[in-house]
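User: two proteins, same treatment. go.

Assistant:
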Amino acid sequence: MYTIHAITHNKWDNSLKPIISIKSGDIIEVETKEASDNQITPSSTAEDLKKLDFNLIHPLTGPIEVEGAEPGDALKVEFLEFKDMGWGWTAVIPGFGFLAQDTYTTPVDLAGPALKIWKSENGFSIAKFGEVSVKVRNFPFPGVIGTALPYPGEWSTIPPRENGGNMDIKHLTVGSVLSVSAEMLYFTISEGYIEEKSI
């Protein structure tokens, strides 16, 4: 088994050289950074959200070359295990996300930045909201995963595309399989999620 440490880039770019080459069927262990590329830490506050550099968002570990892969092939990835780093975060970032322009569904008290740090242990994540402790079961999955785009240049990771990308599919948990069609079979993976639910 290969272990690939968090050697990262922050854009889809097919001119990047692979950090490792693997064969079809190989089992690899991939270490990723958290979504902000370490701009948010366990000691961060909501004020830190105002300083976020969105050019650093989604640090991608890779690229990983699949030997013998040719343009038009599909890459199939099976997720065998996830390990979190013991903490995570949830944020409301003004002007960003699906509710950015929706004044009807965004509460007034969330008009400014909000940040909650969660502690993860024994399969659960816990955070304090005033006097109330909230505990949710962890269902880890990768937020960004995909292959290099066939187009030259650097491309943002934020919108999902034909190569995969920022899909946030909460069902990509242990035992699931993802197939991605691509012209360039250089594979990268980013940020993990511990839990994502509609409450």
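Protein 2:
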Amino acid sequence: MKKIMSLLTLASLVWLVTACQPANDEQPQPEQTISEEEAAELVETAMGSNTEGMSAEAENAAAMAAGSYDSNGNALVDCGETNDTTLSYNRNLPNGYVNYTNDIQWTLECNQLNVPVQMQYVGDASGGFETYRSMGSFTALTAFDLSGIAPAQPEYVINGLYTFDGTVQGKGVGIGSSQLEGTYTLTLEITAENVTFDKDAFEITGGTATFVLTVSVDDGVPVTIEGSIEFLGNGDATVVINGETFDIDL
């Protein structure tokens, strides 16, 4: 009888210990690594004029500024008033497309003589794109200050923040020199610092930016990467990540 009771007690203890142990059905996700090359290409994707990136928003802001004053520098809109503009953009590319809608608010600021001196630009865009290397969908928020409005000044100077949220699906390593393979979910915050924009050539010609990229691949664990950007003009820029430099196209 004592032996039976001991066995029952032992069985009860085994059940109790087993019942108290947490379920271990879900294995922890392995920590991911994103190469510098992949990160640089994601930055390039979120900066490009063909993906409604930061360079496209610089063009939009410059276009708004250029239409806000005449050749003598006189304001064509009311100074200090916020204007609403919606851009709908659909374009076929040689290897894809880009389409987006951008709700823009812009305000022209003037001096005491009613002469424009600065413009505030806020954009809220969403859309999709496909290039020969990747495809994706996004939302983008822009908050730029443009100075250099006076006609005598050859360049606008842009300072502010551009944020790209979305997914980018790579078409495979080696396709069009791509480093992207898989589906990347990312948030990229770019802080523009004295980025110059030529009024005649209508393109970015210089300046710098810093960025913070948070990205995961195929729903894995997100990683955060920081770096810097230098604008070289002629649609070119360099990205520096962990001391490595990469050439990108805008």
